[in-house]
Amino acid sequence: MSFNAGDNPYIFKGFSLDWYGKLAGDETILQGLGNTLIVAVGTCLVSTVVGTLLAVGLARHTRSKVIEAIATMPAILPELMLAIGLLIFYTAIDFTLGLTSILLAHLTFGIPLVAVVVRVRLASMDTSLEEASTDLGASPLQTFFRITLPGLAPGIAAGALLAFTFSLDEFVLAFFSAGPTDPTLPIVIYSMVRFGVTPDINALATLLLTVSVVAVLAVQRMTRITESLK
After folding, report:
1. What is the distance between the alpha carbons of residues 175 and 173, in angstroms, rounded to a whole number?
2. Contact 184/178 with Cβ under 8 angstroms?
3. CB–CB of 166/114 below 8 Å?
4. What's the predicted TM-score (pTM) here?
5. Residue ranges of the domains in the chain?
6. CATH of domain 25-229
7. CA-based angle 201:45:25, to the nearest 5?
8. Where are the bilayer-spanning segments (predicted)?
9. Which member of 34, 37, 111, 122 has the greatest number of CB atoms within 10 A?
10. Cα separation of 144 and 127, whole Å?
């Protein structure tokens, strides 16, 4: 229906790309898209690095179930409860709401999410490779970058994809953490659909779906290449 020539979102009256052109000229949507990409890319990068290190730390350097539960708890908490808790925290410390607060909110979920995915991959790795590397004189840092990290690549890619796609279309955390002048794309969409679904919203949803599908296919392709190189 995003390719509908008419303005009725339920009756198809011919093929047209007019609604995509309308999206390209909508400053509100472009602002929301820009904010969303900033937050999503930032969440993906930080969550991937910190989440991977957290997973290695939990698997290799601690056996405390309490620490592991605390570290991964935000990934299983209800979003609404987490969002309200963050809003109370921001208010208590008088933190200005904006893109930074949204990014921090997404990181509280993204980091544990990546850690859980990478941890699963880490559990399936053969530890004898790391032991052999150490026996041959490699330092812990060399072993991590030459043995552990390449083996974790599929899990890291999957975690990064989840963190990015979660941040891209996440609404609840963003709604409670956003300032009045920095709406993300899901918030913009919410403000639009309150007055009814229109073809331009269908076009926007189609673009978001396309990005998600392309990202999944890209990660699958990258994972196959990584596996074939081993």
Report:
1. 6
2. yes
3. no
4. 0.81
5. 25-229
6. 1.10.3720.10
7. 25
8. 37-58, 70-93, 99-122, 143-166, 201-219
9. 111
10. 12
